[in-house]
């Protein structure tokens, strides 16, 4: 588990105040219980996308922020992205490590050339404390009956993709959590396993809350904040209400052109900019 | 897992349990009361103890997800749910009276009564489909009626919600449902086609009008699979007096490939509401089942058994709207009618499953007694129908997509609004007359329709001519 330091940076304080202003205290049984979670995966140093998602989550009354890893890689604003997540974590956010975050400290041979080029570039941009923050992020973080992990729960350090119901079943079987939240594949999906170990899969509909029924266990695969690949260029994140157990997959339009221009202006591979425009 | 047993007098989340009114294979039903709720209530409790059918659990989960999201008069209101962590239940509005199953010993019932019943069920299905839900268990025992006559669909345990995970998708090897009413595509694992409900309603209509189930009562998968290639006996073979329009509707509902059924439940309801306008095809005359050659081709050449991409309920419904064009047949309306035809043609070209209802209002005087015949002795009503068909003929629509209606009314706007409301028209196309003394005095029909219609309204004006601009602007 990450150690929390109770210190507020100016930017983080802004989030904290505005988050509190939106909470429904009357609907809560205990004053300290966190009800509304905002879950972000695969930010990938996309400042425009992450800013838009944080604003959107704040407007929906998010009380705690969960970051499912891959804060950096691909995008052109890694310093800002890491600094922002560090501030959020200081104020109670939870973050886990992604394969791109891990590759900053220890090069990975499984990455493609473009991803590798972005990692090399990113490494040179980050300060020592920022690199240390990434390196010290945990692989997974249990939170009550929920589990946060970047890739999937069975072998978090192997960075397997959840591509099918059998991949999802492997992850669900590896944990006792009622709901596992992960990212990594950049395409949203929602899997469930019944008490008889039967699987269901589902491509979530944006803005339609789905109740994660108690009788089965769930794997919520989030779309990517900073590099969506499901054909929809809008940034993706999700809200989860711990009382009603409803998950809402959200899409937020953001200034894609600005984010793509930043990538090109910094000499990163052009495909990384082009793919943002088409969401592939 | 030890669960508190539900007995009379149990208190649960503010509900007080009364008597047990039904013990079924999947669930028990109890009357309940709640201090804040005045409608009569029922609590449905799934049977989930050791050795029970696992389908009971999944069906309950589906109802738990779907019921709270449904609204309107065609579903029971939902007042609370509880999950398996403590005590699984749903509390719904108790609909008074019996299900349609209570009529099963009176079959066959008169054609006219069956038409009215099926029309109400189709209207309810249309409303359900618009809410992204396919019922998947349409049968007499899941159909009830409110005292006002509206059909209420109950039992959503096998339903599919287009925007929610389908918990039944891979649960069972056999397609769960009620065998005699199950659509052929369901046997292939297709759960996202709303026209499956139209098939089930067709089975019900066949059964209620002939007294015979079209595909028998076989419960085995092999017996059920026959409907993938074998068509039922045409009702006229069983009952020589069977009306051709009814056979047309029933056999269209029972088409093996959903593509050949009515595109939407609204369109089926429309046909049932206007039997005289049903386009009769070879189906309506058929006295025998398809020859064996056809059956064998269906059986061994694939056809419906070819895999199809997943369909989207909302997209499918949107591609089959009912479009109504309100036309004036008076002298001088030619240019405007030309524009209306062009607008209609554009709409219909993009929506291949849509249908067009051409309507004209025969205005009645408020005081005078109107004569059906004009000065020359021609029947005004029939003249108008002929004029409407003439207007539509350049559209070259298939007869099954076109209907014409002359409404007799004192207030044309009110008549158009009533017709489009009752028939669930999705889009009204209406012309706006140019400024005239009449419009100034009586108000504009199109303005009233546009303001008060429950659906999309397109108001069409002829292209503006340069000379007419000043006048048009001045008149607003």
In short:
The complex is a heterodimer of chains A (280) and B (476). With 280 residues, chain A is of the alpha/beta class.
What does this structure look like?
The complex is a heterodimer of chains A (280) and B (476). Chain A has 280 residues and is α/β, with parallel strands linked by helices. Chain A has a single domain (35-278), classed as Purple Acid Phosphatase, chain A, domain 2. Chain A has 9 helices and 12 strands. The radius of gyration of chain A is 18 Å and the shape is globular. In chain A, 48% of the residues are buried. Residues 1-31 of chain A have low confidence and may be disordered. With 476 residues, chain B is of the alpha/beta class. Chain B has 16 helices and 15 strands. A 6-stranded antiparallel sheet of chain B has the order 1-2-3-4-6-5. In chain B, a hairpin with a 2-residue loop joins strand 3 and strand 4 (37-46). In chain B, helix 2 runs antiparallel to helix 7, helix 3 packs across helix 6 (244-253) and helix 13 (412-422) runs parallel beside helix 15 (445-452). Classes of the chains: A alpha/beta (280), B alpha/beta (476). Chain A binds chain B through residues 165, 190, 192, 194-196, 198-202, 205, 208, 210-211, 213-216, and chain B through 54, 57-58, 61, 64-65, 83-85, 88, 162-167, 169-171.
């Amino acid at each position: 588990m990450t150690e929390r330091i109770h210190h507020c940076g100016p930017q983080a304080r802004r989030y904290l105040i505005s988050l509190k202003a939106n909470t429904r205290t009357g609907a809560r049984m205990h004053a300290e219980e966190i009800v509304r979670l905002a879950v972000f995966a695969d930010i990938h140093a996309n400042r425009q996308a992450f800013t838009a998602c944080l604003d959107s989550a704040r407007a929906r009354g998010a009380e705690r922020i969960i970051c499912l890893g891959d804060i950096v890689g691909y995008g052109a604003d890694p310093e800002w992205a890491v600094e922002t997540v560090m501030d959020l974590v200081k104020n109670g956010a939870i973050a886990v490590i992604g394969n791109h975050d891990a590759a900053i400290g220890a090069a990975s041979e499984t990455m493609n050339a473009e991803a590798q080029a972005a990692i090399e570039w990113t490494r040179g941009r980050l300060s020592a404390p920022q690199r240390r923050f990434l390196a010290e992020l945990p692989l997974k973080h249990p939170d009550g009956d929920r589990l946060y992990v970047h890739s999937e729960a069975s072998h978090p350090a192997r960075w397997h993709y959840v591509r099918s119901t059998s991949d999802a079943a492997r992850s669900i079987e590896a944990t006792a959590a009622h709901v596992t939240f992960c990212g990594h594949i950049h395409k949203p999906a929602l899997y469930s396993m019944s008490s008889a170990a039967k699987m269901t899969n589902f491509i979530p509909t944006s803005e339609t809350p789905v109740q994660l029924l108690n009788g089965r266990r769930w794997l919520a695969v989030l779309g990517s904040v900073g590099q969506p690949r499901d054909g929809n260029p809008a940034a993706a994140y999700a809200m989860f209400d711990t009382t009603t157990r409803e998950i809402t997959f959200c899409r937020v339009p953001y200034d894609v052109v600005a984010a793509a221009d930043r990538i090109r202006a910094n000499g990163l591979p052009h495909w990384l900019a082009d793919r943002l425009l088409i969401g592939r | 897992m030890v669960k508190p047993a539900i007995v009379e007098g149990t208190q649960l989340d503010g509900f007080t349990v009364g008597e047990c009114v039904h013990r079924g294979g999947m669930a028990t039903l109890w009357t309940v009361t709640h201090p804040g709720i005045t409608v009569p209530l029922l609590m449905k409790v799934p049977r989930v103890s050791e050795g029970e059918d696992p389908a009971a659990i999944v069906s309950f989960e589906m109802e738990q997800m779907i019921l709270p999201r449904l609204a309107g008069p065609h579903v029971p209101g939902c007042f609370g749910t509880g999950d398996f962590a403590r005590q699984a239940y749903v509390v719904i509005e108790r609909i008074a009276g019996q299900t349609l199953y209570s009529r099963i010993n009176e079959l066959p019932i008169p054609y006219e009564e069956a038409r009215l019943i099926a029309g109400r069920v189709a209207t309810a299905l249309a409303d359900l489909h618009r809410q992204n839900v396919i019922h998947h268990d349409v049968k007499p025992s899941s159909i009830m009626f409110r005292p006002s006559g509206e059909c209420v669909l109950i039992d959503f345990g096998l339903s599919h919600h287009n925007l929610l995970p389908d918990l039944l998708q891979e649960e069972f090897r056999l397609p769960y449902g009620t065998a005699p009413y199950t659509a052929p595509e369901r046997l292939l694992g297709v759960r996202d086609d709303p026209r499956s409900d139209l098939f089930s309603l067709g089975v019900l209509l066949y059964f209620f009008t002939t007294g015979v189930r079209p595909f028998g009562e076989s419960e085995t998968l092999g017996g059920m699979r026959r409907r993938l290639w074998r068509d039922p006996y045409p009702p006229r073979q069983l009952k020589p007096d069977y009306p051709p329009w009814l056979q047309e509707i029933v056999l269209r509902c029972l088409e093996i490939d959903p593509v050949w059924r009515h595109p939407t439940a609204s369109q089926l309801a429309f046909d049932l509401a206007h039997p005289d306008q049903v386009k009769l095809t070879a189906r309506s005359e058929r006295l025998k089942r398809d020859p064996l050659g056809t059956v064998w081709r269906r059986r061994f050449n694939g056809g419906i058994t070819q895999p199809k991409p997943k369909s989207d309920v909302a997209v499918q419904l949107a591609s089959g709207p009912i479009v109504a064009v309100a036309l004036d047949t008076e002298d001088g309306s030619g240019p405007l009618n030309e524009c209306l035809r062009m607008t209609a043609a554009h709409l219909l070209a993009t929506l291949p499953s849509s249908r067009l209802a051409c309507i004209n209002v025969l205005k009645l005087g408020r005081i005078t007694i109107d004569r059906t015949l004009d000065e020359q002795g021609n029947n005004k009503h029939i003249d108008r129908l002929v004029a409407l068909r003439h207007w539509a003929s350049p559209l070259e629509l298939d007869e099954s997509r076109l209907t014409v209606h002359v409404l007799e009314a004192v207030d044309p706007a009110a008549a158009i609004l009533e017709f489009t409301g009752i028939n669930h028209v999705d889009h009204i196309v209406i012309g706006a007359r140019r400024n005239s003394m009449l419009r100034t005095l009586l108000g504009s029909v199109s303005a009233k329709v546009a303001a008060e219609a429950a659906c999309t309204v397109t108001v069409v004006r002829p292209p503006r001519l340069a000379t007419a601009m000043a006048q048009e602007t001045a008149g607003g």
